[in-house]
Design brief:
Order of helices and strands: HHHHHEEHHHHHHHHHHHHHHEE
Number of strands: 4
Distance between the termini: 180 Å
Shape: flat
Radius of gyration: 46 Å
Structural class: mainly alpha
Strand order of the largest sheet: 1-2
Amino acid sequence: MDSKLQGDQKHIPIDWWFEDVCMLDMNHFVRTIAAIKSKGARPDLIGTIITHYALKCLPGLAREQEVPANLLQDDATSRKIGNRTEIGGSGSFTSMQRRNKFTLETLISILPEERDAVSCSFLLRLLRMANILGVDSLYKIELENRIGPQLEQATLSDLLIPSFSHTSDTLFDVQLVYRLVKRFLAEDENRADAALAAGRSMRASRLPTSMVRVAKLMDSYLAEIAYDATLDVSSFEALAACLPCDARTCDDGLYRAIDTYLKAHSTISEAERRRLCRLMDCQKLSADASFHAAQNERLPIRTVVHVLFCEQMRLKNAKAAEETTQRGPGEQGKCQSHGFNGGENPSQTESDYIHNDSSSMYLEIQKIREDFAKLRHFCIMMQQQVDKICKQKSSFPWSNGWKKLARISNQFQSSKNRNSVVRDEQSSVADDISVETPRRPQAPMPQTRHKGTWRRHSLS
């Protein structure tokens, strides 16, 4: 009988009493949590109870629910808390918002103080709800202080919190994420100081996995918010540069975020483009990212040249390492023994090697400069060709016809004016001649009278 009872107890779930606790109202729930704490219950168990109660009582807290739609409904809604039913009909929006605000503030105040008692995802959802309901800033600061040390547990969907501030026009709350990253870095520094005080090294105290996770999370977040047209360059730059240089082992994610921002904000100046491109380390780009960056027209020319130089140095180092491995240890030992037994100075050999390496690097830099000059000349020639084509396209066929017609009309008008001027000159000359030369008087014709009439004789 006892064995059967023990077998039945094994199949009973641990959270069998969570549903019963969630039926209580807020006052009885707080007293129950206080009694459980006094009995020495585990902090993670208490955090699980609070999470379960919050998901039951606060509408829109779960991921599959839409918070604004659930909070901004004004129709009659009924909600059962404990053994009573609250109906929201007349003025239900204000009363429901006030009730949810009180519930949220109470749940935040009874959260366990231990770090991993509540998941980071649940804390971020509480912070999102607190921004919507307008909870007091003290509760928001409390949530931010809890989220910061365990930021590596967050996901991208948890960080995409809409901005409900009247002072910011951005789509997402970028300043909130910036404060969370700063709190994570402050916790990391405190951990390093505690390790130094205990006699351990800072490198051993730092958790590289958590720092790398946060760096990858920030790169994904930057790539997501880069599409926001209202996000300025300073905010994007501040969030990308808040992590230390050794946090990112590979800058492919940061390059993708910068390229997305440059694509969405094509009107920014060349100086701002250079500022953003200085955030990434070209030596940490992979081969695929370097190949894409070398052909990216949105990047400044200086960044493209830097990427090509880093890729060339990487290929050179890989080729040198391959030649070293192909030689084998036997040939290396012969070379070393020959160097020392032949009377050569090791320091002189090393200095010669450094000199040769610097000379080859100088030649490579000169070659890159020549290639850059050729590329610049080619770009200038292409720009001239484009301008010439644009000018040719701007002149349409009928415009040429109108130009020819206007030219002919101008010639006709000028010839007409010229003919009129000549005629005026001729008329003026004729008038002058007529005035200067008087007429000769004509001799009167002789007349004779014959038979009572006068007869005019011809002069001939």
